[in-house]
TetR family transcriptional regulator
Amino acid sequence: MIWTLKRGTEGNKTAGWRWSPLELNGCSVYLGPMARPSGSDGDVTGPRVRAAAERLFARHGYAAVSMRQIAAEVGIGAGALYHYTRDKQTLLFDLMRTHLDDVIGAWDSVDPQGDPIDRLDAFSRFHIRHHLDRPDAVFIAYMELRSLSPDNFARIEVLRRSYEAVPQQILRAGAEAQLMHVSDVKLAANALIAMLTGVTTWYRDGGRLDRATVEARYADMALGMVGAQKSLQKTF
Amino acid sequence: MIWTLKRGTEGNKTAGWRWSPLELNGCSVYLGPMARPSGSDGDVTGPRVRAAAERLFARHGYAAVSMRQIAAEVGIGAGALYHYTRDKQTLLFDLMRTHLDDVIGAWDSVDPQGDPIDRLDAFSRFHIRHHLDRPDAVFIAYMELRSLSPDNFARIEVLRRSYEAVPQQILRAGAEAQLMHVSDVKLAANALIAMLTGVTTWYRDGGRLDRATVEARYADMALGMVGAQKSLQKTF
DNA sequence: GTCTATAGCCGGATAGAC
DNA sequence: GTCTATCCGGCTATAGAC
């Protein structure tokens, strides 16, 4: 049996038909000349399947969600799902790979590439912002590693490690330039990522603090963790 | 289907009979005069059921573990499990309640109760140590909240909040005494707990760093996060 | 206290009609 | 591209023998 926990702002029931997050984003889902006007088709239903799976996996966990539930959320029969994914495992793997590709690519296009302190500040803010924008994908990426088949697990680990190399490299550069106090680069990078990612467990839009404030406070703590402060002399 | 991820130091197969963690701890499980010498009985089997459930829930997740698997791990039939728990949900709830009662009680008996900086240092070290000693219970407590029934979820949340009040109170005292730089007490406490708890995702006994070193490095970073340093003048 | 057997349901995935 | 029907197996929990 599955109970719905309060997560985020909504309380939709899964019974009956409802619009997917794609439509709720406010933009039409008409995806070019091939889209047909008569309800679902391949170009639209595929993304809606992945969106529904992401929502449900994040809320209830991969093992607790059935293909029938995903199909019901999309508004199709369970059998039709298999036109969009080979099986349930592949659906999970594709969600995680896409998420990690996204986050790695997004950082590359934002990396200021200069002073280590600036980069740590930028990385902290980027990580917070990116994660608050994709709470479901983040939740899955961190909680469902154990639900991956061994092969898929290995492939995801490669991506995860390549993202973790980002803060490691920043901290190493900062330590070598004696701008930061880092006793162990990998340990500190792990601690940093855990702290930043933890924001997804409590932050809610419309709550006491807004995103800009949260971002700034976390960035300050990130710098403090390694004995650095923005626009100030180092303190050791 | 369930795949076994590498977690911790062991690689036991679940097929066939094996000794439970209770026996592996090195101490006999003969629990006083009521224990009978002929294999499992109530005094021994109950704890072994909980230990097996804890192991399996932590590795594969509550939803992915069947009562049959738990029973097999203990070495009894599935039906016999119901002499030790009302149902699977109650088994999960009891594990989480016991864990949280433990951690709260353990801190109370260790709290140095003095200077906020000493207390933050002590809390950080305590949290790391306690969590590294109970990786399975910790994993379940943080990952399986969504598997609790609404009633049980509410009861666990009460306990969880009472533990989170510990660092909140420390940081508040430190900020009021102007020994720490804390822009927002709850935000900082959440960030601190997330950072510290994250140690369980990567630390392994026998790895590159030992527990004492890890404990010390995390405690340093915890103090740095709020602009404090042990045995040094404050830096602002 | 544990066993075997089973009720009743739900799971993933497939086949073939339309 | 979606539907309905179905295979086959696993699930929780219970019943009753020993």
